[in-house]
């Protein structure tokens, strides 16, 4: 069986991400859980925990993605396809929203330190986290409903089984506008908020009385967060917009996820 070059690249990314990303994210999860037990669940800890769980939802299912890519076929039981798709896409948008929440918290702590401290409660952050997950899961549920109650596994034009990739025109009529709405609501809006908060943090820190070294550290963290946001989430969400414009399920959506997947091996 001959695997195309682009799929070999994808397999390499999936393998390294799973081998490096799984233990590193489990370690981060352990550290934040321990910190929450010792010092209490601050907003940053709550959002970081949820961000870590979102990343793990993707990493844990990468062996399935790698197997599908290697075999060029969906060889697993059909009922596993919607579960796999649900975790995969919830990770993308869950991590996107919680990265935004972390950035907003950082901005509020710098711009309004006294006022923010009054509302800086772990319980409030837990409610916000639950609301963010509810938004993500609602959109993904609607996306899975677009399958029309089928088995999610279908036969492509190459006569191989595919998971949640081959759609009828009726399914695309529902799915494409939903993907566009997800790109706008769950990506472009968080991106705008993240960019605003990051640039405001840069301006406030630059005008502050912090030592030069302290300023550089804060600016490096803020700007790296914005860079991660752009690199990880832009390609995949651009595929939603392009797909809506062309009115088709663009074939490079899988490759568009590689930037997000590859980052997890380095985080």
From TrEMBL:
Transmembrane stretches, start-end: 12-33, 45-64, 84-104, 124-146, 182-206, 218-236
PROSITE patterns noted in UniProt: G_PROTEIN_RECEP_F1_2 (PS50262)
Gene Ontology biological process: positive regulation of cytosolic calcium ion concentration; positive regulation of insulin secretion; response to fatty acid
Subcellular location: Cell membrane
GO molecular function, one term: bioactive lipid receptor activity
Membrane topology: Multi-pass membrane protein
A Gene Ontology term for the protein's cellular component: plasma membrane
Chief place of localization: membrane
Pfam families the UniProt entry points to: 7tm_1 (PF00001)
Domain G-protein coupled receptors family 1 profile: 24-267
Keywords: Cell membrane, G-protein coupled receptor, Membrane, Receptor, Transducer, Transmembrane, Transmembrane helix
Protein name, UniProt field: G-protein coupled receptors family 1 profile domain-containing protein
């Amino acid at each position: 069986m001959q695997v195309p070059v682009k799929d070999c690249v994808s397999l390499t990314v999936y393998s390294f991400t799973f081998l490096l990303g799984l233990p590193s994210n489990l370690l981060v999860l352990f550290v934040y859980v321990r910190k929450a037990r010792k010092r209490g669940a601050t907003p940053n800890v709550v959002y970081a925990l949820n961000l870590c769980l979102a990343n793990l939802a993707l990493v844990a299912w990468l062996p399935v993605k790698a197997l599908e890519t290697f075999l060029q076929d969906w060889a697993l039981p059909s009922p596993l396809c919607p579960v796999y798709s649900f975790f995969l896409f919830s990770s993308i948008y869950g991590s996107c929203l919680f990265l935004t929440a972390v950035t907003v918290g950082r901005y509020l702590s710098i711009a309004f330190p006294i006022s923010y401290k009054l509302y800086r409660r772990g319980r409030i952050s837990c409610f916000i986290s639950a609301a963010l997950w509810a938004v993500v899961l609602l959109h993904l549920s609607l996306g899975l409903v677009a399958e029309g109650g089928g088995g999610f596994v279908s036969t492509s034009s190459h006569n191989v089984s595919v998971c949640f990739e081959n759609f009828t025109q009726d399914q695309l009529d529902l799915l494409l506008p939903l993907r566009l709405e997800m790109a706008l609501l769950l990506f472009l809006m968080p991106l705008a908020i993240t960019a605003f908060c990051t640039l405001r943090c840069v301006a406030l820190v630059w005008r502050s009385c912090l030592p030069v070294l302290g300023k550089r550290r804060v600016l490096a963290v803020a700007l790296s967060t914005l860079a991660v946001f752009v690199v990880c989430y832009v390609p995949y969400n651009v595929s939603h917009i392009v797909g809506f414009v062309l009115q088709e399920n663009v074939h490079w959506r899988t490759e568009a996820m590689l930037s997000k997947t590859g980052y997890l091996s380095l985080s």
